[in-house]
Amino acid sequence: MRKRTRYSLLLMLALIVALAVALVLRKHAPPEVARLLPESDAIVYANLKPLRLATHFDRTAVVRSPEYQHFIDVTGIVPERDLDAVALALHRMDDPNGPNGPVAYSEVLSGRFDGDRLSDYLRSVATGRESYAGHTIYTIPITDPSNGATRPLRVAQLGYDTVAASNMPTTEQIHSILDRYRAAASPFAGSSLLSARYGDVPLLSSAWGIGHIGLPFSERGHISVFGLELPLAEDTTFVASLQYRGSIRLRIEELAPSVDDAERTADSLTALAGIFRTMEHVHSPTDEALADALNSLKIQQHGDRAVLTADIPAAILRQLASSTASSSASSSASPATLPGTADH
Questions:
Q1: What gap in Å lies between CA 327 and CA 331, rounded to an integer?
Q2: What is the pTM of this model?
Q3: Does the pLDDT of residue 5 top 70, yes or no?
Q4: What distance in Å separates the CA atoms of residue 284 and residue 128, rounded to the nearest whole number?
Q5: Euclidean distance between the first and final Cα of the chain, in Å?
């Protein structure tokens, strides 16, 4: 009897330890929406809950286009209110002048959706359907108003609170997402990029990006921001993150090919930051917040890595969130564009 009791206690202890290890692994594992993404050149993730609390962007009054309002009326989904997490995979396109431009996207969204209403909406706008891995993939033509190019957006509901989409020319990426979902993605699952770089993401980051995250801003082989060409190639590997600490701590880390390359990047960015500081004039609270952000900016070199850090005041985030919400709501893009998906 004593042996049985001892064995029972040992078994119970082993189960408790196993459960504790599993919980720790799950806590430090990449978010599930990111683990479901296919192979890609970069991954961007955002947990919108803390951003919503910090900026209250869901309370911003916006004037919505008729198409956008129709989507909300039919599905009941208000993206700025109902989206909780977004994971985006960036795929470099071989032909930057093709319908997708230089970059295509695959994404997984989680939040509070009415699955039946969303399914009815997708059926009403889809021009094609495919059954794969027990799910229906809807194909929706999206026309870019800037150039008239049309490309397919493939959308699938993974569960009651999760949606996947991809505008890649082939079905490979949306199939990969469904395969990973069917396999009930473990804490160790995910693309090769996620496995290789997620360990570099600082803990408790509300938003982060890994890989060639400069691709959407590439121009003539370099990264351009607001028309300014940075001293960085478009295929530079980064680990970027945002952490909420009263203000938002921005950290961008370049993984340079060599120590000399990292030193050159740090020197060039330091010079640019100095120019920005001398050009900055304070005329409003927003300008003052921007000046504070520039003054907090630091650029350091650690071996073959150049690291930029800055504290972003909540006022800047609120302005960015409001302008993004207004831009999305007034867009003339097809009403088939899903919540959280740009008109890719």
A1: 6
A2: 0.82
A3: no
A4: 51
A5: 67
